[in-house]
Write a structure and sequence with these properties.
The chain is an alpha/beta fold. It has helices at 21-30, 47-58, 96-103, 122-130, 159-169, 185-196, 227-240, 255-261, 302-309, 330-335, 365-376, 388-391, 397-403; strands spanning 2-6, 11-16, 37-41, 62-66, 69-73, 80-81, 105-108, 134-137, 141-144, 151-153, 175-179, 200-202, 208-212, 219-222, 242-247, 267-270, 274-279, 288-290, 315-319, 339-342, 346-350, 359-361, 381-385, 407-411. α3 (96-103) runs parallel beside α5 (159-169), α4 packs parallel to α5 (159-169) and α9 runs parallel beside α11 (365-376). The chain binds ligand EPZ. Residues 22, 25, 90-91, 114, 117-124, 156, 158-161, 182, 299-300, 322-323, 365-366, 393 line the site of ligand EPZ.
Length: 412
């Protein structure tokens, strides 16, 4: 399937942000830590979340949906993660820690996910070993033993490893101190969820987190708004022009983006849970950008920002520090007429007055969405193919964009 996009329509109206898939995915893994029911509200029905729910069902969990709420009960769960979807999504890795802690055994094939870099799992594995896992490698990875508390130092503040180890440590009644934790808002949400299930956690939202767990119980939580979807909507208005309100978001979760954009478009105002963007004339380039761990500029926003800078007035230099393949999205943008110079870990974008639509292929989630944004502002009609990558993380992106005036449809 592909998107057919006729560029050039300015966007007008409201775009409402859904719950964050990167918040829901670890929360779904967290359900394995109790035999009681856990309900997650504000849950987006995107492909990665549906796949994660299927993986839970395949190991014995009862999963049900009520609107945008998902309930999971794990009376008994199997430690063999062998369904084909495990190898499809990165988030299946989040089940290693919880299943090891609950069953004393987990065996899994290696996770999939977007092809944005090498994405090793050494930080997860080193941490699990510190928490009692004996690790062997055969058709994937196998952890066995009994979970216990310990001090764990992560060599890099990995989002997924922080989440995995927090969940694992929460089933031990001994104390664990995790050092050099990632501090993304999705991690804070997970920490609060674990507390609501009965874990004692100090240092929530910081880089040193102390966890004392034990037997956990069921809970009801709500996913935080998706900050990357919010950025996608904001930057769609910058690419296409118009007057757009992005609502139901938490602008404090993307302060760096707000600071970058506030002086580059005609109007950029941040309110409690909304952002108002007006772009009538050509926007100015944001200058230098470097991706970093939270609260720095998010790597997931980088391809989206790059798309918007292709038509800015002036030069933008973007350095990617997290994922080595993420700048390769410059290539399809060049096919649309963007003036981008590629170095190994940096690109230099000299803004051109307009892009011209053509056919380009999505190769990952955020890169694919970035191509949609670029095409919204381009001259003529073009196609973005392989949109299954985009559907992993966006709820009917085409419907949302159509509501504010974009000419975008799905065709075979
Ligand atoms: C999470 O991935 C997100 N995925 C990614 O979003 C996001 O880009 C990333 O965090 C960074 O913010 C989910 O939450 C499901 P990391 P994760 O471990 O956990 C290296 C999207 O588009 N590393 O923080 O995989 C790794 O190679 C996705 O929604 C190791 O070296 O990210 C990378 O360079 C894409 N060894 C850096 O750390 C490890 O064991 C950051 O990765 C783990 C990671």
């Amino acid at each position: 399937m592909k998107y057919k996009i006729c560029g050039g329509n300015a966007l007008h109206g409201e775009l409402r942000v859904n719950g964050a898939k990167n918040c829901v995915l670890p929360m779904l893994a967290c359900c394995v830590l109790t035999d009681e029911t856990v309900t997650i509200d504000n849950c987006p029905k995107v492909q990665d979340v549906l796949d994660m729910a299927d993986i839970l069902s395949s190991i014995g969990a009862e999963v049900s949906w009520q609107g945008d709420s998902i309930s999971v009960t794990c009376k008994n769960v199997d430690g063999n993660l062998c369904c084909e979807k495990v190898g499809k999504i990165r988030a299946s890795l989040f089940l290693l820690g919880p299943l090891f802690a609950r069953n004393g055994f987990v065996s899994a094939c290696l996770p999939g996910g977007c092809a944005i870099g090498k994405r090793p799992i050494d930080i997860h594995i080193d941490g699990l070993k510190r928490l009692g896992a004996e690790v062997t490698w055969e058709n994937g990875v196998c952890c066995s033993g009994k979970v216990h508390g310990n001090d764990v130092y992560m060599r890099f503040p990995s989002v997924g490893a922080t989440e995995n180890l927090l969940m694992c440590a929460s089933l031990s009644d001994e104390t664990t101190v995790l050092y050099n934790c990632a501090c993304e808002p999705e991690i804070t949400a997970l920490e609060k969820m674990l507390v609501s299930m009965g874990a004692e956690i100090q240092g929530i939202g910081t880089s040193v987190v102390t966890v004392k767990g034990g037997k956990l119980h069921g809970t009801r939580v709500s996913a935080i708004p998706d900050r990357i979807v919010a950025a996608t909507y904001i930057l769609s208005a910058v690419c296409a022009g118009g007057d757009v309100w992005v609502t139901n978001c938490n602008p404090r979760h993307f302060s760096v983006l707000n600071n970058m954009l506030k002086d580059t478009v005609d109007c950029y105002n941040v309110y409690g849970d909304a952002v108002h963007v007006v772009k009538k004339k050509r926007h100015c380039a944001v200058g230098m950008v470097r991706t970093a761990v939270y609260p720095g500029f998010a790597t997931d926003m980088q391809p989206l920002l790059v798309a918007s800078q292709c038509t800015a007035f002036g030069k933008t230099v973007v350095e990617e520090t997290l994922f080595e393949n993420r700048l390769s999205n410059a290539v399809p943008l060049q096919m649309l007429g963007a003036d981008i110079l590629c170095r190994s870990d940096k690109i230099v974008i000299n803004g051109v007055p307009a892009l011209s639509a053509c056919t380009v292929g999505a190769t990952d989630l955020r890169g694919g969405a970035a191509l949609v944004l670029a095409m919204l502002g381009a001259q003529g009609t073009g196609y973005v193919t392989d949109i299954h990558h985009i559907q992993r993380g966006y709820c009917e992106l085409e419907k949302s964009l159509r509501q504010v005036g974009a000419d975008i449809t799905i065709v075979d």
